[in-house]
Amino acid sequence: MAPALLADLINLDLSDCTNKIIAEYIWVGGTGMDVRSKARAIFRDPFRKGKNILVMCDCYAPNGEPIPSNKRYSAAKIFNHPAVKAEEPWFGIEQEYTLLQKDNNWPLGWPLGGYPGPQGPYYCAAGADKIYGRDIVDAHYKACLYAGIKISGINGEVMPGQWEFQVGPSVGVSAGDEIWVARYILERITEIAGVVVSFDPKPIPGDWNGAGAHTNYSTKSMRSDGGYEVIKKAIKKLGMRHREHIAAYGDGNERRLTGRHETADINTFIWGVANRGASVRVGRDTEKQGKGYFEDRRPASNMDPYVVTALIAETTILYEPSHSNGNGVVH
């Protein structure tokens, strides 16, 4: 089909011939299974525009049980717990990703089979010799805004061809909904552009930064006067459950959390103020004001946002340690 005709058909205005809308359903997993989807969140469709919608779903087996990849089900139970609802947990997620050339899976802008200059000049940079894929990134930003996603920023990352977008603050389970739909929109845009998006936490081995999903978090108590003490208690709990969190924070994260490239070692839990090499970082403003939020820097770029957000809320609000498990906290 001729490209011009295809574009005309894609952009057909249906408003003068029907009042029907197109709803595109998005779900996670379920390969090889009979599933039933249930609509959970609705967004405006940036591709079809008009009154058309994107619908985020979770999925269930014919017997009504959630399928294994339906992590939203258990997350919703955590966020509907009265103690968690009372704390109004806010999340701001920094989703990093890498753009790859379709034919060779090598980062966009890199010489085929070779490497660009060392890291340093690429972070938040400008210029054709430093930034690759900005049109994709800007298109994604605007598409998410159109959809109604609480996207709050974008930036080029330390490794060339790697980017980040931020979503939030979002409350409770909606943080997971918005990240999944933002990822879907990014997949669609890169499909149109003929580029591959990778959420691998360490796409290029060696002296190159990995890709994470830093998760900023606060509760009502943390945002209130005296909140810094609440934050420190919450961080102590996170340290006690460090191994459990690491196990849930994404596949292949051991390749990223090495203690180098702005990460803490995967086997050590460290927190600090303005420390980008820590497991959990507290901002200077939070320390100065005595209230605010903190950043869990451990989650990998391929993490499931339902799992990560629910686990952080469970550990910091519901978990009551009975004794030390030997997994110490270092400040």
From TrEMBL:
Pfam families associated with the record: Gln-synt_C
A cellular component annotation (GO) from this entry: cytoplasm
Keyword terms of this UniProt record: ATP-binding, Ligase, Nucleotide-binding
Enzyme class: ligase
A molecular function GO annotation: glutamine synthetase activity
EC number: 6.3.1.2
GS catalytic domain ranges (all copies): 71-331
Record-linked InterPro entries: Gln_synt_N_sf, Gln_synth/guanido_kin_cat_dom, Gln_synth_cat_dom, Gln_synth_gly_rich_site, Glutamine_Synthetase
Biological processes, Gene Ontology terms: glutamine biosynthetic process
SMART domains documented for this protein: Gln-synt_C
Superkingdom classification of source: Eukaryota
Family stated for the protein in its record: Belongs to the glutamine synthetase family.
Protein name per the record: glutamine synthetase
